Amino acid sequence: MRLAEDMEVAEATRTGLSRVDLLLGGHDHEVVRRFNGDTDTDPANVEQGYDDAEITAEGLIRDAQGDIRIIKSGTDWTGLSLVRMIIEKDSDGSIGISTVVRQWSNIDIANLSEFTITSGIDKLLSSIHSRVDVLVQEPVLHSYTSLDGRGSVVRSQETNIGNMLATAVQAFYDTDIALFNSGSIRCNQLLGPTIPSGSPLLAKDIINICPFENSLLVKRIKGSAIIHSMENSIGDMHMDGRFLQIAGLRMVATWQREPGHRVLDISLDRPGATPQKLDPSRTYTVALPKFIGDGFDGYTLFPAEETIVDEETAITDTGLMLQIFGHKAEERGEDHEMGIQRAQAVTIVGTASDGLSIVNPVVDGRIRFIECPAL
Hints:
Blueprint: H1 3-12, E1 23-25, E2 31-35, H2 52-55, E3 56-57, E4 60-66, E5 68-73, E6 80-89, E7 95-104, H3 119-136, E8 139-143, E9 147-148, H4 151-154, H5 160-173, E10 177-181, E11 190-191, E12 201-202, H6 203-209, E13 216-222, H7 223-233, E14 244-247, E15 249-253, E16 263-268, E17 276-277, E18 283-289, H8 290-293, E19 306-309, H9 317-324, H10 334-347, E20 348-351, E21 357-359, E22 367-369
Parallel strand pairs: 1-5, 8-21, 10-18, 15-22
Antiparallel strand pairs: 2-5, 3-4, 4-7, 6-7, 8-12, 9-11, 10-14, 13-18, 13-19, 15-16, 16-17, 20-21
């Protein structure tokens, strides 16, 4: 949940049978702490009432103690929270909690001198990492261009990696439309190019792009609900994982208007056909990750729509990408194999001298933002 939602939960669970003493939150990418009674919902602020520079020195944030209700620990292993909860029982039998927290942000945790790892744990982790490394080091593909999976880009605009993923999903299921929430794309970097020179991308690079093994459902969804979903996609300003990468649609929108009024035009996009305005009353087949199909990230209209392919029979985003490039074969019947072939046809543009597939995804203007006066 986002910080604002965490704070609602913290307030609703202060006392009684639903009491929760501490929420260890996620989703937001910042290091955060909030005390009982705080109202600041901006995760960019570590602690309410202070500029970060006032309480942070060389990545170490000033220790805090008291009725701390929420703690978040950043992302990509650059943040850390050490938490100690002091529990005291008063004479009347009531329980008192005081939480002590030391936090770091924007650091290399591996080099923190405060921590040591026991030899037993170190040996176990090394063994696990060695076995996993063998499995994920297989070369799988080349790219003529940089695959842009940077979080700041993929969560705010059309990108070539988003187009590749959404188009492959649409082709695999042969649907009218495919939607792919950018929060499912987690590599947060530029990958490649690997041609004319460079090492091929590995299986682990594909897994890092889509690490969650999200099931890809197919639903029949009314045009009105699709329009609502595109408004929700751009309902946040530029950095929310709800932002959709799309296939089968073309959208013109603006950031200058209020949320709910930002989509200016949306039409079906079929190869070789003239774009047609999306019909709010018509029903379309849509492939989409289960996360948004279940209504999360504000996609509240999707759960009620008819499901054609459910979680039990769905392919996952990670599995689809690996299978397109021949890394992870599955015996799932002729329809599945035909789907992989369709996805390969829209994804792979050639074969390199080492026998690996080549991709060259582009940004083709399927999502355009324009300047537009506010209503």
